[in-house]
Amino acid sequence: MFLKLVIFICAFVLRLLVVDGYLLQDYIMKEQEVRNSIMRNYDKTTMPAKLTTVRLRRITIKHFDMDEISHTLAVDAWFIYEWTDPRLKFQPTLDVLKLSMSPNDIWMPDLKLYNDAHPGAVTLFDDTLTLVYPDGRVLHAPPARLHTTCVADLTLWPHDQHNCSIVLGSWVHHGHTIDLRLLENKPKVDLSQQQTPGGRNISRGEWELVMTSLIRMENSYECCPEPYVSVWLTLVVVRDAPAFNWTVKVPVVGLSILSILLFLLPPAAGEKLILGGLCLLMDLVYIETVTTTVAHSPSHTPLIIQLVCQQFVLVLISVIIGCIVYRMVHEPHIGGLPTILHRPLSKMATLLCLKGYNNLVSGFRRTLPRSLKSEELELGNGNVIPHSVNDSMIRNEWLFLGALIDRICLILCFTICLLNFIRFHSVL
Predict the structure, then answer these.
(1) Which residues, other chains included, contact 309 with Cβ-Cβ below 8 Å and sequence gap of 6+?
(2) Ramachandran region, residue 199 (left: φ > 0; alpha: ψ -120 to 50; beta: rest)
(3) What is the CA radius of gyration of the chain?
(4) Per residue in 350-403, pLDDT tens?
(5) Pick from 99, 225, 277, 425: most CB atoms within 10 A?
(6) What is the pLDDT of residue 10?
(7) Does the pLDDT of residue 27 top 80, yes or no?
(8) What is the dihedral of CA 252, 257, 261, 263, to 10 degrees?
């Protein structure tokens, strides 16, 4: 009994193999027959009709990258478009409902990228097979690498936004021969994303796609009255790199604060000149570092570069003023400040919160005899006043003037830095 069962199973399997093999062979013969019938006397260089309508069904964006150095936008996308070729019609059967054919064997619309960044370097579409349906409809869904030009405006760097357009159309045929039609007015965006356990997206790079659109355009030229049809794929990308907050913006704010602190040091301190020199050096290093990134856009000066350059000029002027004040304080003087300046400078010192320096100078003045003439004070005549007291008083008066100049410069620097922060707030 067991032996009969084994023989029955083997016979059944053998029959299936024979039948399937026959069916497979029959399918192959039928498909070859259909192919031979439609490709007989077929000329792929001839237009399918006087007017062929190419319907762009969908564009799916899979990846994109903006390169501000070369001013190019690279987009990886899937195109799905179709047209009708009456010469490819065939009678469908239960076995042959559609045919896959190489684009090298049939007529294909000559779609090209008008604003290609590397013209002639690569083809727009590869040799992905097309699908031919019984009614002559041809469907092509190839992947495409679009490398288009896009001039980068780095004025708001590192918060810059770029509006880039990809222009597609027939290279030689006008709209009365090949007409492009859109079935959707917006491309599909299918960007791969990888999330961290904390919910951060770590796969999108430093650019974010904020808007997309598809527009059909018709252009006419003086030489040719026929309309030329093109499709414009527009992408608006915004730089979104959180690391730039730490590497670009924080140093700028820090350098601005250091330039203000320069005038908080005592007017007689030589360290203020060292600090000013270090600020100048750090500004130069920052400008040199950032220039390597934005040097390829000479017609669009980033606002943050303007801010640092203005800051460099401000620090340079501050160092010059600091040198003058330092020389004024330490240089030996034969006389103090003119008497006519004592009262207004004292009032200014009260307003500028410099009572300590004002009291120091006033204390020395109160120790002098009232009958002492100014000529005697300047010449140091007589034994009533020791020379050390006279020299200290003169030095303190010039020190007092240096403190007033420093305080005025501090207020001016703080005001300028505050106005710069308000003016350039869009990049800070």
Answers:
(1) 287
(2) left
(3) 41
(4) 788 787 776 766 655 555 544 444 444 444 444 444 555 566 777 778 888 888
(5) 99
(6) 52
(7) no
(8) 80
Q: Kindly list the distances between the CA atom of residue 165 and the CA atoms of 70, 74, 365, in Å, as whole numbers in the listed order.
A: 16, 11, 77
* Residues pairing with 64 in the sheet: 75
The string of pLDDT tens digits covering residues 85-121 is 999 999 887 778 889 999 999 999 999 999 888 776 6
Residues in the chain: 428
Mean pLDDT of 394-416: 87
Residue pair 58/184 in contact (Cβ under 8 Å)? The answer is: yes
Q: Would the CA dihedral through 66, 67, 71, 72 be positive or negative?
A: negative
Q: How far apart are CA 108 and CA 353, in angstroms?
A: 83
CATH architecture, domain defined by 36-241: Distorted Sandwich (2.70)
Tell which residue, 152, 139, 175, has the closest CA to residue 72: 152
Rounded distance, CA 353 to CA 240, Å?
45
Please report, for the chain, the start and end positions of each structural domain, with discontinuous segments joined by +: 36-241, 244-427
| HEC secondary structure over the chain | CHHHHHHHHHHHHHHHHHHHHHHHHHHHHHHHHHHHHHHCCCCCCCCCCCCEEEEEEEEEEEEEEEECCCCEEEEEEEEEEEEECHHHCCCCCCCCCCEEECCCCCCCCCEEECCECCCCCCCCECCCCEEECCCCEEEECCEEEEEEECCCCCCCCCCCEEEEEEEEEECCCCCCCEEEEECCCCCEECCCCCECCCCCECCCCCEEEEEEEEEEEEECCCCCCCCEEEEEEEEEEEECCCHHHHHHHHHHHHHHHHHHHHHHCCCCCCHHHHHHHHHHHHHHHHHHHHHHHHCCCCCCCCHHHHHHHHHHHHHHHHHHHHHHHHHHHHCCCCCCCCHHHHHHHHHHHHHCCCHHHHHHHHHHHHCCCCCCCHHHHHHCCCCCCCHHHHHHHHHHHHHHHHHHHHHHHHHHHHHHHHHHHHHCHHHC
Distance CA 8, CA 227 (A): 72
CA 359 to chain centroid: 56
Tokens found for residue 264? 């908080």
- pTM of the model as a whole: 0.72
